[in-house]
Automatic annotation (TrEMBL):
Listed Pfam families: Virul_fac_BrkB
Name of the featured protein: YihY/virulence factor BrkB family protein
Coarse class of the protein's main subcellular location: membrane
InterPro entries in alphabetical order: Virul_fac_BrkB
Gene Ontology CC, one term: plasma membrane
Entry keyword annotation includes Metal-binding: no
Subcellular location: Cell membrane
Origin: domain of life: Bacteria
Mode of membrane association: Multi-pass membrane protein
Native source organism of the sequence: Glutamicibacter mishrai
């Protein structure tokens, strides 16, 4: 049924038939669009979003160190490893001390741990071009484990099974990881380009010192745009659904970016003003802070994905499609779906054979509707007699107690 509806939707879109009120902006459209945000929040908790984000945090921590190694290795190929690590530390310091105050024990411990990690990774990112490239690809393969886990989480939010075989899915996730890493490297190279390098580029293009000023002004927007691109790549390519089109700037990516920025700034203020993880956890306080930051980040990413899903559902509902319960999108691959259904059927048959071999009724399954749970047959006559007897007993007890109270009152009056 789902495939038929999706096929009908695709044929309708290909025909280009106009929809009623399509493209018209009204108050009703605004109200429907705003309703997507609270619905996305409800769907987040219906799908146990906090637990899903916690599991993704595990994969993010595992992927973080090989990802940083690959990033610094690629920056060293571009000749920007030292400036890139310095810029990362500056951003982290600004995030942990947003008001310009000095970092407290927890924030300083996290900064020291990060600086030692980056310096250690930078010292390892050395060698010939091919050695660094091979090491970067190996590290990226480990990093793709998080991207794979993120795709499974989005499948859960979309309500679709994973139909791509492992030999096809893992290379796809690896390519997505490589694309994200290349975007990150290009962004960092652009952001750390300053001074004589930027002035030299300005002289080549004929702008001179004006190019340096323009680059400094454009750095924050460039970073935000590249983060939106990374989010769009994750939302579009990782789940096992074919979305209508690739959207760089969508409601989901913008929502994820806003939530991510606000939550991390708030977490930084909390660490600098109120938290005392170093006093509670000692030397592992920095690790606890890192895990919490990963958990908050994944919550923001999942909420952004759900906002995108709700807006896709809204567009389908406006075209008259029955997307009340789930989004109607075709699967990228359904190869594993049939195999999984066959395996489930075999397990069911084997379980029935075991039950029948041990004296079970072979016709029992024929009396049960598989679409509904079995209902217990209730005998109405014994239940009615028992209820009537209980009512008579309670009534007699009440009358007896009232008579006793009346007699006591009359005796006291005499």
């Amino acid at each position: 049924m789902r495939n038929q509806i999706v096929a009908l939707m695709n044929s309708f879109v290909r025909q280009g038939n106009p929809m009623p009120n399509q493209g018209r902006f009204t108050k009703e459209h605004m109200k429907e669009s705003l309703a997507c945000f609270p619905r996305a929040l409800r769907e987040f908790f219906r799908n146990d979003g906090l637990d899903v984000a916690a599991s993704l945090s595990y994969f993010m921590v595992l992927a973080m160190f090989p990802g940083l190694l690959a990033l610094i290795s690629l920056l060293s190929l571009a000749g920007a490893s030292e400036s890139g690590t310095k810029w990362i530390m500056e951003i982290l310091e600004q995030g942990l001390a947003p008001n310009g105050h000095a970092s407290n024990g927890d924030s300083q411990q996290l900064l020291d741990t990060t600086e030692q990690l980056l310096q250690g990774l930078a010292s390892q990112a050395s060698g010939t071009f091919w050695a660094i490239l091979a090491g970067s690809l190996g590290a990226l393969w480990s990093t793709s484990g998080y991207v794979t886990a993120f795709g499974r989480s989005l499948n859960r939010l979309y309500g679709v099974p994973e139909g791509r075989p492992q030999w096809k899915r893992r290379p796809q996730m690896f390519l997505i990881t490589v694309m994200i890493m290349l975007v990150t490297v290009i962004t960092l190279v652009l952001l750390v380009t300053s001074g004589s390098i930027a002035r030299g580029i300005g002289n080549v293009v004929g702008l001179g010192d004006s190019f340096v000023l323009m680059l400094n002004i454009a750095k924050p927007p460039i970073m935000l745009v590249m983060i939106l691109l990374v989010l769009a790549l994750l939302y579009y390519f990782t789940p096992n659904v074919k979305r209508p089109r690739f959207r760089w700037f969508s409601a989901g990516t913008l929502t994820a970016l806003v939530i991510l920025g606000l939550s991390l700034v708030g977490f930084g203020i909390y660490l600098s003003q109120f938290a005392s993880y170093s006093a509670t956890y000692g030397t592992i306080g920095g690790v606890i802070i890192l895990v919490l930051a990963c958990w908050i980040s994944n919550i923001a990413l999942l909420l952004g994905a759900l906002v995108d899903i709700e807006f896709i559902r809204l567009r389908q509902l406006r075209t008259g499609l029955p997307a009340d319960d789930e989004v109607l999108l075709p699967l990228r691959d359904d190869t594993l779906v049939a195999k999984q259904e066959l395996a489930t059927y075999k397990d069911l048959v084997q379980a029935q054979e075991v039950r029948i071999n041990h004296g079970g009724d072979p016709l029992q399954d024929m009396e049960i509707d598989p679409q509904r749970p079995a209902k217990r047959k209730t005998k109405l006559l014994p239940v009615g007699l028992a209820a009537g007897a209980a009512w008579m007993i309670s009534r007699a007890t009440t009358i007896r107690s009232l008579r006793k109270d009346t007699e006591k009152t009359s005796d006291q009056g005499h």
